[in-house]
Recover the amino acids of this structure.
């Protein structure tokens, strides 16, 4: 007798997004399967100054956090504005997607997304300058993320030109 | 046979056939969508949408009757906030097709039986309410509804059943009356009067020991925290006095009266309430949370009184909306704000009151705490001109009443407020709360502010907190969370142990083996350097494990952790968590440490209780995990035995399966032992905790009595409510050990203040 009504089963915050990791070793189907079972979240738009303690405090609100891996600039080895949060259970991670995604940490709206699982090397930014790709090309000024985007910085003060 | 003939006759045979098989599914989805969406925002009126939908469904009855029945039964159970929309729809269908109406009623009765069998009591309430509103739609005859109610109320005459069982049947009947009271009284007033008088008798006999444990505030003013059945009874009494005139509920069926009253009604089959089963889980009693009344909404519509039936209906509907949409915060906020009839009530106040009511509900909120924070933020986004002000007003009121607020609820308020502030740049008029600076720091108000600032700091950083509060609040600002390691301050090189520390640190840096480090440490018994490193990278835990094989060792390491990290409570919690998970310390050791004399000065701080509850939860999860493994192994064995029975008598197969069975049986035996050992550890943990509470509280009570001093110090209030909190937060687990607790600890010799907590817990009949 008990019927599940599709119209009432909406849980859109938990759905996987369009993003697929280009460096993932495996096909799209395998990646999606992992994303749908994952206990690990990617967290983006962090300030460079946000600490592991702050991330732990916020994400503990949806359940026990197993570990946090702060994303690092590949060259400088300093925080570059993202991290991974791994939970012990899928249910706790889902609560984070529903209630922590899109709220503020360090005054910034952070974004969470499913991750297929942390592997050594994934804690580094993939931008040419060492940070995240999004910080390579952005044109805005963000003091919590190193100021202007890398490209914009070079355009503003290109090397080898005299200034009068 | 006829289908094949059709496809032969048609032109594009194959494609036509394919279309035929996919169509029914599409139509079923469409039907589901149409039914679920009726009543939502539309360019046409609700009446014309219902009329249209009734026409569509009537036309589809010949082919999709069962699907339609199932969908309508489901919305009755899952969308109670749209009750009257769907009862009207069923009424219209019944008017057009009497048989369908009869089949629907039968399906509902079957569903009601199912939900009761599966302990889904809240959903069962919605089903009965739906049936009762069908009386208003001329689908069900009033006398047969009264008969069902009479059967429900006869449960109150049963002997030797839990009170919560009779409670539920009384609640169901009373909660239907706002919808159908008028109609039932018009047709069967004598029977209804008898019913109400039986209910009154039951309510008078009812034991209410459990109430103090569930109240958010202990004070009666300004709003008494009423027991839920008492409140509902008062509301129904008032409704009766008003001759059952109820003007709040949206009743679309009134517009269709001329059509509906032509319909033939069905009689409900006689419904005997299922008997009491020992494993039945009836809903827990509740206390009605009230924080606003008509004086609080400054302008606009007036808030209905606490004993008005409108208040009941509004609160019911808002709770139902949250229940339906809690996973989808934007939808939930939008649905709450588009509540029908919102122009006649101060909706923002009702929403804020219902949300806080759920957040502060004891034993626990219906949904995870963080959901409410995010929901309130969404509501603020959708109503930026009005809701934040109501929320600020609510926060102010909650602050003013902290002195009598239950400690568990204060914990939740601290967590909500600090998280909320972190989303709004920590803006708050702290000066308004300057009164907290003039009283003893252990009193609820300064304690609350201190804990809020500590949580705010954890979400940001120390300097931020210094910047956001007025200088006068300096005493309440938390300490900067750095480690306190007297050995690490290089300038103090004359401190004993400094040289040793350097030796050990160098050894670790040079990747000395665990044995070498262990030797050095054992000779010197220095732990702090390890802890400093431990905070950042949790390694060398085998070393620690050896050092902490005894209870003394475990207590020592916990003390050292506290010594080094006492300004960084979050780090203490993380380290204790890791040490339990890597089995360096056990749960009982943590409990003993928290209750020890060393930690007495920290006893009323929130982080202590967060650590204790987290420890208990880990213990519970551990037991559950092994129990699950045991169940899985047992299932495997059963399947194996079935396979053997069904596979016949192949000799080789028999030998293999015998081996497998033998292995499984061994595994089950091992797991059984593991479960027993884990349960024993769990029981011991609770015994340790309760024993410690009893010792501390008894000491305090005796000291006060001999000194003729009032027992109600801030410390005592905190301690006794923390004891309550243990019972409430872990009631499911504690239930298993009631016998031991009663025989060993909560005996009649205990001081009555302490025994009362235990008795209140038993009265919840969880």
């Amino acid at each position: 007798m008990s019927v599940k009504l599709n119209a009432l089963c909406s849980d859109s915050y938990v759905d996987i997004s369009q993003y697929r990791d280009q460096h993932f070793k495996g096909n799209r189907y395998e990646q999606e399967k992992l994303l749908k079972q994952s206990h690990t979240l990617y967290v983006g738009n962090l300030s460079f100054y946000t600490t592991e303690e702050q991330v732990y405090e916020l994400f503990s609100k949806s359940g026990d956090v197993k570990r946090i891996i702060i994303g690092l600039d590949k060259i400088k080895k300093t925080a570059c504005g993202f991290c991974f949060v791994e939970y012990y259970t899928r249910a706790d991670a889902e609560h984070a997607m529903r209630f922590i995604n899109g709220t503020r940490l360090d005054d910034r709206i952070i974004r969470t997304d499913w991750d297929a699982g942390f592997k050594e090397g994934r804690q580094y930014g993939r931008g040419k300058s060492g940070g995240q790709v999004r910080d390579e090309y952005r044109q805005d000024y963000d003091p919590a993320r190193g100021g202007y985007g890398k490209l914009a910085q070079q355009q503003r003060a290109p090397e080898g030109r005299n200034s009068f | 046979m006829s289908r094949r003939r059709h496809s032969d006759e048609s032109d594009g045979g194959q494609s036509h056939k394919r279309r035929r098989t996919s169509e029914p599914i599409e139509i079923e989805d469409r039907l589901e969508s149409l039914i679920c969406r009726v009543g939502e925002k539309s360019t046409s009126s609700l009446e014309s949408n219902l009329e249209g939908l009734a026409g569509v469904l009537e036309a589809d009855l010949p082919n999709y009757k069962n699907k339609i029945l199932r969908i309508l039964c489901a919305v009755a159970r899952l969308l109670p906030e749209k009750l009257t929309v769907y009862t009207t729809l069923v009424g219209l269908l019944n008017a057009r097709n009497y048989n369908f109406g009869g089949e629907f009623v039968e399906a509902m009765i079957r569903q009601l039986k199912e939900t009761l069998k599966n302990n889904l009591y809240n959903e069962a309430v919605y089903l009965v309410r739906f049936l009762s509103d069908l009386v208003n739609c001329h689908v069900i005859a009033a006398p047969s509804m009264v008969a069902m109610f009479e059967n429900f109320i006869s449960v109150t005459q049963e002997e030797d059943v839990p009170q919560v069982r009779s409670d539920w049947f009384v609640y169901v009947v009373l909660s239907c009356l706002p919808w159908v009271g008028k109609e039932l009284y018009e047709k069967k007033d004598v029977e209804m009067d008898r019913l109400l008088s039986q209910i009154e008798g039951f309510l008078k006999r009812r034991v209410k020991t459990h109430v103090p444990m569930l109240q958010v505030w202990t004070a009666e003013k300004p709003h008494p925290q009423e027991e839920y059945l008492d409140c509902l009874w008062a509301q129904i009494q008032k409704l009766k006095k008003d001759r059952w005139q109820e003007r709040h509920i949206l009743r679309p069926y009134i517009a269709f009266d001329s059509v509906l009253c032509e319909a033939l009604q069905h009689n409900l089959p006689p419904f005997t309430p299922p008997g009491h089963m020992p494993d039945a889980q009836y809903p827990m009693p509740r206390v009605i949370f009230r924080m606003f009344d008509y004086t609080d909404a400054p302008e606009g519509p007036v808030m209905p009184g606490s004993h008005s039936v409108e208040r009941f209906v509004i609160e019911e509907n808002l709770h139902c909306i949250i229940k339906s949409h809690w996973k989808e915060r934007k939808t939930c906020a939008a649905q709450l704000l588009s509540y029908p009839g919102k122009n006649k009530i101060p909706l923002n106040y009702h929403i804020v009151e219902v949300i806080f009511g759920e957040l502060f509900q004891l034993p626990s909120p219906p949904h995870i705490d963080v959901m409410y924070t995010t929901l309130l933020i969404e509501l603020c986004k959708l109503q930026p001109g009005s809701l934040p002000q109501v929320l600020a007003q609510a926060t102010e009121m909650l602050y003013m009443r902290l002195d009598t607020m239950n400690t568990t609820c204060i914990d939740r308020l601290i967590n909500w407020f600090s998280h909320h502030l972190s989303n709004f740049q920590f803006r708050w008029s702290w000066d308004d709360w300057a009164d907290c600076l003039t009283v003893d720091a252990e009193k609820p108000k300064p304690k609350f502010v201190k804990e809020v600032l500590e949580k705010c700091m954890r979400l940001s950083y120390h300097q931020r907190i210094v910047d956001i509060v007025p200088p006068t609040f300096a005493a309440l600002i938390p300490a900067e969370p750095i480690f306190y390691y007297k050995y690490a301050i290089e300038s103090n090189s004359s401190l004993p142990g400094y040289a040793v520390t350097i030796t050990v640190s160098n050894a670790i840096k040079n990747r000395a083996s665990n044995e070498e480090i262990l030797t050095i440490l054992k000779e010197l018994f220095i732990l702090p350097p390890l802890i400093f490193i431990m905070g950042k990278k949790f390694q060398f835990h085998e070393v620690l494990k050896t050092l902490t094989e005894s209870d003394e060792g475990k207590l020592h390491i916990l003390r050292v952790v506290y010594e080094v990290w006492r300004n960084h409570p979050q780090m203490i919690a993380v380290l204790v968590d890791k040490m339990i998970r890597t089995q360096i310390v056990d749960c009982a050791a943590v409990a003993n440490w928290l209750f020890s004399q060393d930690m007495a000065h920290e006893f009323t701080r929130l982080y202590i209780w967060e650590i204790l509850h987290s420890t208990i939860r880990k213990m519970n999860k551990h037991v559950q995990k092994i129990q699950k493994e045991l169940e899985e192994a047992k299932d495997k064995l059963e399947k194996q035995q079935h396979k053997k029975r069904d596979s016949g008598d192949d000799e080789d197969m028999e030998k293999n399966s015998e081996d497998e069975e033998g292995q499984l049986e061994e595994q089950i035996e091992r797991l059984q032992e593991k479960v027993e050992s884990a349960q024993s550890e769990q029981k011991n943990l609770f015994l340790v905790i309760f024993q410690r509470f009893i010792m501390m509280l008894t000491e305090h009570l005796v000291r006060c009595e001999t000194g003729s001093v009032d027992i109600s110090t801030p410390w005592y209030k905190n301690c006794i409510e923390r004891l309550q909190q243990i019972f409430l937060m872990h009631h499911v687990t504690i239930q298993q050990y009631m016998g031991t607790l009663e025989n060993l600890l909560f005996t009649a010799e205990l001081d009555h203040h302490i025994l009362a907590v235990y008795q209140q817990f038993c009265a919840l009949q969880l």
Summary: Chain A has five helices and eight strands. Chain A has one domain: 12-156. The first helix of chain A runs from residue 28 to 37. The interface with chain B takes residues 1-8, 10-14, 51, 53-54, 56-58, 61-62, 64, 95, 98-100, 103-107 of chain A (CB under 8 Å).
